[in-house]
Amino acid sequence: MKRYDFVKNRKYAFAFSIALFIFFGIMLAVNGINLDINFRGGTRITIETVSDVDPNQAADLVRGAIGKEVAASVMETYSGDDGTAKTKMLRLDISGNNPLTPEEETKVKEVIMQNFEVVLNSPKNENVSITPTVGRQALQKGILAVAISVTLILFYVAWRFSILSGFSAAVCAIIALFHDVGVMFGVYFTFGLPLNEIFIATVLTVIGYSMNDTVIIYDRIRENTRLMQKSDLGSIVNVSIHQSLSRSINTMLTTLICVVVLLVFSVSNNIDSLINFSFSLLLGVVTGVYSTVFIAAPLWLVWKERKQKAALEKA
Fold first, then answer.
1. Which pTM does this prediction carry?
2. CATH topology (fold) of 42-130
């Protein structure tokens, strides 16, 4: 059976990624960025419910009462008194330049109480207010954490793979990482999902996961450069990708089993934080393997070939 030629068909992978990012750019222009109140500022109100609550109806009612943007969801949690009994909680995320005033909070609770069966005096209820300044600081620190990790990776890969012209290998690895993160952001832009601190944590996890795969392929290229001295660089890269492919796929599948189980568990139990984490991680794992195989090594080869061509023309 003829093997797939990753080097020869690299233009198709590049074209697919470019088309995907053009689509994500359009979605960003149409939908904008949806920041969670942890990054944007606002108030989160959690109220225990007795019966089923339609979150869309609750959001519309609160929006009409106070005239602010509202995102509503219903969560299930286990009661502290009875470990087997579940308690339903209505969560209202109300974004704004300032947290709700006491009067606005009263209006929110009144309109919810008038239309749904809730327990306003439940000890499980929570009110959390975040100022825009605190939200921006949290966002800036999250971006800084990603930037620091990417910079450290750049220096490490440049040092580790000096035989492969370390800087070019590092830059191509970083481009592959930006590809992974960009896809994750793009999916969130497309579906209007809120970006929060859980998403930042997932991005950092995916960066480490994806870089691990890329380093494995770079290691194979480095070894095969010594073993296949009579072969051209394209053949070396292609062989190295195939030698690492089964490992990358097996690692992805075993990781996906855990992530999918976590996603199913969090959805069935309506654990919002775990849903966000597992869904983001699912995206990152899949795109991480894709970028490692189809972007990082082939892109490094393009860099090297152009550099060699420029050297020959100069000579």
1. 0.80
2. Alpha-Beta Plaits (3.30.70)
The Cα 200–Cα 194 span in angstroms is 12
DSSP annotation of 163 reads G
Task: Say how far residue 186 (Cα) sits from the centre of its chain.
Answer: 9
Q: How many residues does the chain have?
A: 315
Q: Which residue has the tokens 């579906």?
A: 191
May I ask the CATH class of domain 10-34+134-314?
A: mainly alpha
- Tell me: pLDDT of 189 over 80: yes
Residue carrying structure tokens 């990358």: 248
The Cα 229–Cα 232 span in angstroms is 8
Residue type, 273: S
Q: So what's the pLDDT on residue 35?
A: 79
CA distance 73 to 193: 13
Residue type, 206: V
Whether pLDDT at 119 is above 80? yes
